[in-house]
Structures are given as structure tokens and as C-alpha cells.
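Appendix B. Worked example

We walk through a single record from start to finish. Start with the input: the chain for LRRCT domain-containing protein, Daphnia galeata, length 614.
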Amino acid sequence: MSLDQSWSAARWLAVAVVVLVASPTAVQTFCPSMCQCDDSLLEASCSGSRLDSVPILLNPSLRTLHLAHNRIASLRQSVSFYGELRSLDLSHNVLHSLGLLHFQPLGQLEWLNVSNNLVSSLEMESFAGLSSLTALDLSANRLTRLTDDLFAELPSLVTLILSGNKIQTVAAGAFDSLRKLHTLRLEDNNLGHVPSTALVPLAASLRSLYLSKNLIETLEDGSFRHLARLRFLGLNDNAIDRVDPLAFDTLVSLDALDLSFNRLDGVIEAFTASISPMTHLDLSGNMWRQLPANFLSGLPRLQTLNISYMEYLRSVDPAVFHLSKPGGNGSVSLSATSTSATSSVVVVKVLPIANLVMTNNALWNHLPSGLFHGLDAHLVRLDLSGNAFETLDMGRHHSTDWPHLNYLSVAYNPLQCNCSLLWLWNMLQQRNHSSAAVNGSPVVVNVTCSGPPPYSGLPLSSLNQSDLFCSLALPVSIIVLLVISWLVLVAGLVVLVIYWRRRRNARRESRLMIIKSSHHQYHHRDHSFQHHNGTSPILGGGGGVKHQQQYRMDSNNSPALSGHHHVGATIPQYYQHQNNLHHHFQQAQLVPSARDEYTYHCAGTIKRIPVTVV
Ligand SMILES: *[C@@H]1O[C@H](CO)[C@@H](O)[C@H](O)[C@H]1NC(C)=O
Ligand SMILES: *[C@@H]1O[C@H](CO)[C@@H](O)[C@H](O)[C@H]1NC(C)=O
Ligand SMILES: *[C@@H]1O[C@H](CO)[C@@H](O)[C@H](O)[C@H]1NC(C)=O
Ligand SMILES: *[C@@H]1O[C@H](CO)[C@@H](O)[C@H](O)[C@H]1NC(C)=O
Ligand SMILES: *[C@@H]1O[C@H](CO)[C@@H](O)[C@H](O)[C@H]1NC(C)=O
Ligand SMILES: *[C@@H]1O[C@H](CO)[C@@H](O)[C@H](O)[C@H]1NC(C)=O
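Next comes the structure step. The output line below is what the pipeline stores for this chain.
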């Protein structure tokens, strides 16, 4: 063996080794440099590779092929090389059409993404052979109409995405034969009304229907007729200003409805007249100026409610979340409560809302104090941020009234941090102090004071209780104290007055005694009589000469004191007996006069007795 020969043998060996070593990469010769191929997963990705066409040299057993973000303008026959494909992504290319019969050999294909292309028209034959296809994404193309039987070759289709086109018309038979379709996305098109007739074949299967961002103006009775399995209905961002009372009537499985950003401004009878099983409702961005009582009384299962971005909303009735009109009918709960409503305790049934979002209603500046009455037992999440509340009147509410609440936001309100927010302050303290905030006290986010001036911009939690001007924190006891001290004062005054009057009387009595004793000296004859029943026994004696003389006991006119004391005239004396029945008068001999009037004091009042003297 020559050296040359051995060298040659070694070379062959080396080649063999190279071939052996290179053998795995030998398959990669089918993988263009711009692609990444994984033959164990049977997956190839040629995304973003500036490809003009579908590569034909890839592993024919591929299950997954990514061709997104290329410049593929036409499919031609190339995709038919990959008969084992399950998933094909052709999104973000420049396809104008899917051609005819190109997918025919792809009987296993389940997922086809043609979104973000330039497809402006489709033929039934485009989809021929795709008998296993479950998801078809044709979003963001240039479709303007859906013709009859367009998807007739797709009996397995579950998800059909047609959003972001310019679809204006949907033929009555467009969705015929799509017996398994669960999800139909038609949002962001140019539909002027709900394609009710076209939806009828989907009655037994459809779960989710997206009609958002179209040009729909009215929801007529029976718009969603027969869609008994529909659970989600997206109608947001249309121009809906009218909802007929039976629009949602047959949606017996409806769980979530998005009506946000429309032009609704009246009572929606569809929400009050009949019962809906709905649990999620979004009414944001509509035109209501006020939300009346029983606004949603036909939604006894509502759990999530969003009423945000209401440009014109100024007032909300405290009974807006009540289920039933007192005294009315038409709601399930009412029959249960109507009997008890007649009794003094009115059972108010409210919507069982757990997640309430009422944010960014720029004109809504008053939170009615009864709004959460009854709701508090269910609330888990409450977002009131971005409104115009200067204060939050929770009425009787304290944090303990919200047993399940775990999130509360009142951020971006022009809150005045005064005593009215004490409940919130307490909530924040509670959270601070119980380190185990997880169980119990809710997360209260960003409560920032807008006033009064010294506190503007400060978080409420940074204030002390005294900063909230709660000096009258116990107003009831203060009032009680005030009332009691007032009463004591008044009683004291009364006692004083009585005492003073007694003293005055006593002084006067003693003065009379003095007068009497001074008269005694020259009175001729004492004549005493008993006075019965207010008439003088003297009167009974029959009067001769009439003469009137009045004696007053006050100091000025008292004959004794004034000095005008007529001789013979006497001053009636009065002795207050314990029983107050007998008044003894002492009378001196009178100047011949017919009648006298005796004035005397009796139990603090002045009485006059006409006396006729014989
Ligand atoms: C289709 O591709 C687009 C763009 O890559 C992507 O956003 C979309 O989610 C895909 N569709 C499906 C149904 O996965
Ligand atoms: C309304 O609130 C719900 C629940 O938090 C949320 O999913 C939805 O996006 C909100 N809608 C708007 C318009 O913000
Ligand atoms: C409600 O009252 C109206 C008449 O007032 C009646 O026609 C209707 O049947 C009542 N509905 C229920 C559920 O009782
Ligand atoms: C809290 O809210 C105020 C306005 O109310 C805002 O200025 C501030 O940026 C918010 N902070 C956070 C953390 O969101
Ligand atoms: C707190 O301020 C609000 C808004 O200015 C006011 O309506 C409320 O009466 C105040 N509360 C108290 C207790 O002063
Ligand atoms: C409560 O906690 C926050 C942050 O966790 C803190 O900024 C604030 O000062 C605390 N307040 C009190 C009263 O401790």
C-alpha cells in the first residue's frame, strides 16, 4: 500500500465521517437558509423572510408552516406539496386572492391564517378540500361581501374570523352548512344592521358573536332569533340608539353583552321587561344623562357591570340596581317580595353585582347615598375612579359592610378630605394595621385629596384623624349634652323665679301685718266674718247706700301707705289658711257706702270680691 493509497483511504474515511456527521444536516438541505426547520416537531418557520412564494423544498411531512410577514402574492400550487399540514400561517402577506382549489390536498389542515392580506373576494372553491379546518382567520383583508354558500366546503369550522374587512352585505345563505361554528367575528366591518337571516343556520352552535365596530343603528325584535346557545354578544362601538323590547328575547343562554360606546339614552325595555340570564354587561360610553330606578331590573343574575365614560351622565337613581318596581310586576323577584313589601320592612332585591365599574363619568358629581344599599353583600370589586365626586357619602356604610370587597378605587376624583371621608380613612387605617390585609380588608388604591388646600395632593392615608375636622365626631352625645345642660339651666332659672316671687310675697305679707297692726290702734270695732263661696255674707244682708271703694294692696294705692286713708275704711286682711278655703276679713266700720270691693291675694293671684256693706 503506497502512502498515496493510504492517504486516499483516509480521505475516503474522512469523507465518510463527514457524511455521517453531516447526515442530520443533510435533511436541512431541504430547509432554505431563511427558514428554521424542526423535523422532530415537523415544523418550519420562514416568517419575515422576504419570500415571494411558498417554498417547495421543505419537508413534505411538515405539520406546521409559518409564512407570516413575507411578500407572497399568490399561492399557486405550492401549498399542495404539504399534504400533512395541520397549521398554516399566511398572515401579513400580499395575497389578493386565495385562488381556486389550492388547498384541495390539505385535508388535514385545521388552522389557516390568512389575516392581514389583500384578499378582496372569495369563492366557495377557494376552500375546497379543507374538510378538517376548524379555524379560519380572514381578518384585516378587503372583503366587502359574503356570498351564499361561501363556506360550504368547511363543515368542521368552529372559529371564523372576518373582522377588519369592509363587509357591507352578508347573503342570507353565507353561513349555511357551518353547523359547528362556535365563534363568528364580524367586528370592524361596515355592517349597517345585524345579519339576522344569515345567522339562522348557526342557531344550534354559535356561542360568541362579535359585531362591534360596525354601523348598526337599531336592534330590532328578533335580531338574534334562535341563537339559543349564544353566550357572548359584542355590539360595542356601533351607533345603536334603539333597542327594541324583544331584541334579546330568545338569547336564553346569553352571559355577556357589550353595548359600550353606542348612542343609547333611553330606558332599554329589553333590560326591564323580560328576564335575561346575563351576568356581564358593559354599557360604557353611551348617552344617558341619568340612570333611572330599576334600570336593569330584568337582569337578576348580573355580576359584572360597567357604566363608564358616560359623557353626559349627571345623576344616578339610588334604586338603579334594584330588581323590581315596588307595586309593579314583570320581574321574578317581585313575586317573592311583594307580600313582604306590604309589611313595614320592604325587602329590596338588588342585582347581585360583584364587580362594579363606574369610572370616568366626568359630570357625575354626586354618589347617591343609597346606591350600594343591598349591593354591599355581593361586591368584590368597586371602581369609582375618574368621576367628579368631591365626597363619597356612603350613608351608614363602614368597611365592615362589605364583607367580600377586595378592591376599591376612588382615584382621580376631586375629593375633599373632610370628616365625610372618615369611613374611607378608617378603611385605609384598617388595611395598614392588619398586616394580613389579604384576608379581610380590601385594597384601596390611590385616595388622593384635592382639598381643602392644606391637604390637596396628599394621600388620605397620610392624614391624621384630626385633620379631617371630625371634632364633632360624636354629634349625638354632644347634642344630648347640650340639651341636658340647657334643661338644667332652664330649671335653675325657674327655681330662681319661684324663689324670688315667694320672697316678694312673704315681704308683702309681713308689710301687711305691719299695716294691720297699725290700724288696730284706732279701729273702732272689729268685725270679722267668714267668706264662703266667694260671696260676701254682707251681700246677703241687703245693701242700702251704694258706695264703692276699692282697696288695692299694692304699695302705691294702699291707703295705709299712700296716706289717703279714709277714716272708717278698713283694709281687708287676708290670712292664708292651709286649706285656702277660709278668708278672714277684718273690717272696721265703714263710711256709709253700699258696695265695697275687696282685693286680696290668694295663692299668688289677685282676687277681688265685691262686698256690699249694710
Ligand atoms: C393570525 O395571525 C395574526 C397575525 O399574526 C394574529 O394576530 C392572529 O391571532 C392569528 N389568528 C389566529 C386565529 O390565531
Ligand atoms: C368595563 O369593565 C369590565 C370589567 O372590569 C372590563 O372588562 C371592560 O373592559 C370595561 N369596559 C370599558 C369600556 O372600559
Ligand atoms: C304584569 O301586569 C300586566 C298588567 O298590569 C299583566 O298583563 C302581566 O301579565 C303581568 N305580568 C306578570 C309577570 O305578572
Ligand atoms: C393617584 O391619583 C392622583 C389624582 O387623583 C394622580 O395625580 C396620581 O398620579 C395617582 N397616583 C397613582 C400611583 O396612580
Ligand atoms: C366635606 O366636603 C364635601 C364637599 O365639599 C361636603 O359636601 C361635605 O358636606 C363635607 N363634609 C363635612 C362633614 O363637612
Ligand atoms: C399606610 O401605608 C401607606 C403605604 O403602605 C403609607 O404611605 C401610609 O403612611 C400609612 N399610613 C399610616 C397612617 O400608617
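Two observations about the output. The longest strand covers residues 595-602. Residues 390-391, 416, 418-420 surround 2-acetamido-2-deoxy-beta-D-glucopyranose (ligand 5) (CB under 6 Å).
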